[in-house]
Amino acid sequence: MILVIAEKPSAAEKIANALGDAKKVKKNDAYYFELDDMFVVPAVGHLFGLKQSVKGSSYPIFDVEWAPSFEVTKKSEFSRKYYENMAEFKDFVTEVVIATDYDVEGSVIGYNICRFLFPDKEVKRMKFSTLTKDELKKSFETAKKPDMGIIEAGLTRHYLDWYYGINMSRALTTAIKSTGKVFAIMSMGRVQGPMIKFLFDREKEIAAFIPVPFWQIAWKFKLGRRVYEALYKDKQIWEEDFSDKIMKDCKGKDGKIASIAKSDTEKMPPYPFDLTSLQTSAYNLFGYSPKQTADIAQSLYSNAYISYPRTSSQKLPKQLNLKSIVKKLVKQIQYKKFCDELLKKELVPHEGKKKDPAHPAIHPTGEFPKDLNSMQKKIYDIIVRRFLSCFAEPAKRESIRVKLDVAGHEFRVSGSKTIKKGWMEIYEPYLKLKEVTFPDIKEGDPAKTKKIEKIDKETQPPARYSQGSILRELEGKDIGTKSTRAQILQTLYDRGYIINKSIKVTRLGMELIQAMEKYSPLVIDEKLTRNFEKEMEKIMEGKKKKDDVLKEARGVLNKILDEFKSNEEKIGAILDKALIETRAIQNRLGECLKCDGELKLIFTKRKTRFVGCSGYPNCKNAYPVPQFGLIKNTEKVCDKCGTPKIYVYRKGKRPFSMCLDTECETKADWGKNKKDKKDKKSEEKEKPKEK
Predict the structure, then answer these.
(1) Range of the structural domain that residue 507 is part of
(2) What is the CATH number of the domain that holds 319?
(3) Segment 440-454, tens digit of pLDDT
């Protein structure tokens, strides 16, 4: 008998149905699938994890062992039933086929299950990039021995992340405890440190920036029936006296066209999506966080609508049978027109340089999507349109640059228009192109003045990173991996080290990095992180051994932690102060409507919370708030009642905003849904049961 190991239940069902007439079997409140000569059994991600093998909470600690995930953390208790179902097959299967996602993590998931539950069985590995029936069948038929390079690299990453994560988190938490004033669990990982240091450096650039004033002269003029705006040829005029002279010379005078220059530019189609470019586009267009995009794309992959999304490839190899995919997409009405046109010619994709040994670029499978929510629809649509655009003709844009003369002073205005749509017709919903056209004009034509003004400006500091742009920068610097960057960025938010969509490092984050720079700089050294990433690549290629890399890592960490321990109290004092100030800022919610005090989030000895006034006991203004979830200040007030508005973040639920006043008219309908449900339940109970 053959046992096929899938990474998740949804994937197990796809694989089972692709391999034959599968029977769904329920056991331990979980499912697996039975075929004539095989079983397809799902994991739920990692069924094994690393845990400390000795007692104690000191650091440094490197004594670690693999154990079932539900023994490692209570959060993984849900995995017990899947583990027990998997274990039941260990005595009567003769061959195990790993059919987890073909990446580093998927390889570790499958390998651990095999070595701990099926140590004496023959093992093969399926390789696939989509969960379509044809590809899964072919992958099963051509399964080979597992790639031990990928597995060893994955195991190394787990050990390294455990070493750094546990030891640095304990070091920071112990440092804070040493002050005895506040308590907080803090973390600092192998990638977290360099990532926040990178953002910290941008904050320093912004803080150190000294603006320099300059002036612009904007001239509005009329050509035909339209009004245009031109700027003086020097967009930054550094001397105000000179800008005043231009204004004086030009005031009340019309101009004329001095010269016209036209040029055509061919715009090549975009490359197909890799994960980073998909995350960046989704953030810029839809405001989805990188983690949201990765999760949405994963759900589309699990339903066989797109290929495996965690790829760094910008390539669409011929083996994908690209024509077949386009033929399937014809059935989806919104793409039919484009597909019909593309199928008239040979399909040659416009590709980028980036490769991935495991997977091609993200692409649709052609399977007809069903029951997509609004977010899935957007991500699916942009992936399909990007894919189809790769095969389309280049677009052509005409640019026109016009120079104008006003009283001997040169002003400039430019425009552009699309003269051949090409691929842009397919990708049009996601393009942000400005079409600025001019009437039929020639040199010497008059331009009538409508308005001229001097604009005071100053140079701007470097812009803060968005969640999209930071991923591109981190990729360029080899900090983290395509699969982990979004999750680590989210961790920095969760820890309170960074805030806002336009990423700002908090006081706590700034003080943390300053303390590390002064007392333990190796923790945040991006060169060290990059070096270990390269070491893992060498392990994957068979050029280096796992044990050698781990020995080197233990040596580096011992050095870091010795240095940290000698400065523990100093680091603790810095973090203690930063935590107190950060919490004070976070708990400040706005102005009191009944006095000049501030409304603050207050915690009682019974660990409940409410919003009260800083003017207590003179002012007893107070408001109840939800007792569970993270509360954040929106820095806005309700336009109905005038009280501050807050955000409430609850685990596993959508965040929501609310004002503080329980009697506000915005809450008029809040209790109705609950009451309706309660009434409905009562009605159901009162109905006579059918016999």
Answers:
(1) 157-207+464-577
(2) 1.10.290.10
(3) 999 999 999 999 999
